[in-house]
Amino acid sequence: MNPKSGSIPCYSSQNLICELCSVDGKHWEDLDVPQEKVYAVGAKPSSGRLYAGTRPAHIYVTESIETSETTSPEWSELDKFQELPSRNKWRLPRHDNLAQVRDIHRDPTDPNRIIAGVEVGGVHVSNDGGRIWIERTDGVDEHIHELHVAGPEEYVAATGHGLYRTNDAGRTWMRLDKDVPQSYFRSVFSIGEDTYASGALSNSSTWDDDDASPVLFACRDGSIEPISIPNPDETVTGMTSVDGSLLVATHQGNLFTKKPGSWDNVGKFSVPGSLTGRYTPITSYCG
């Protein structure tokens, strides 16, 4: 949310690519990001600054998302992001030899520290608001599906080959899923000291197979334990918190909220198109 205007930036990934904002959830305006395909949005709440990550992998910033009939936000590219040593390797044949910025976050204790997760490209950190970037890819898989900020300098990466945590802003990483067969992680979120991550045996093209074996895990103090959900054959593709309780979205379009000792089915959403590449970014907002 833009703290100055009350507008809510919104983006949708894979199935619908857009960059919109709204003050009431009913009327939406195009923010005219220079690249058409926006995969990630991050904000600096104290200033109204907004970051947009795209496919191909670029990052743009605007100081305000105020719009009118005659003006659009002024975007500038953080071009030093393109000068990272590994930049020419950010590609995958099945992704049309392109990469996308999956997440952009701000470290909660340093308003100038920006963290970006790239698929395929790893994790990268800027300590000056995006002017200079540092690679933080050693020890973490480069197939970043979701990068979550769990606390100061504490980030968790759900990747195509494992679940990883850092407690020092990416200087070192620890793999959390060594003792479970699921190694393809799609979504990650934390509430307090608990981190939740959704894993599967393979990519989304297999999720409707009888032997897909998706699992929602809870992680604390370096341990990882499976927790049951009402529909155990569905892969969790998005998570958020509502009044301190975990809310999950699945690849079949179900929404469940976790209560002490039970789950509630709180709704459904449409899931058009193929399974491949499905993500469900969700959030809660009370205004």
From TrEMBL:
GO term, biological process aspect, one: xyloglucan metabolic process
Top-level lineage group? Archaea
Query: What does the record list as coiled-coil region(s)?
Result: none
- Which Gene3D superfamilies does this entry report, sorted A to Z? YVTN repeat-like/Quinoprotein amine dehydrogenase
By its UniProt entry, which PANTHER family does this protein fall under?
Answer: EXO-ALPHA-SIALIDASE (PTHR43739:SF5), XYLOGLUCANASE (EUROFUNG) (PTHR43739)
- UniProt-recorded name of the protein: Sortilin N-terminal domain-containing protein
Organism the protein comes from? Haladaptatus pallidirubidus
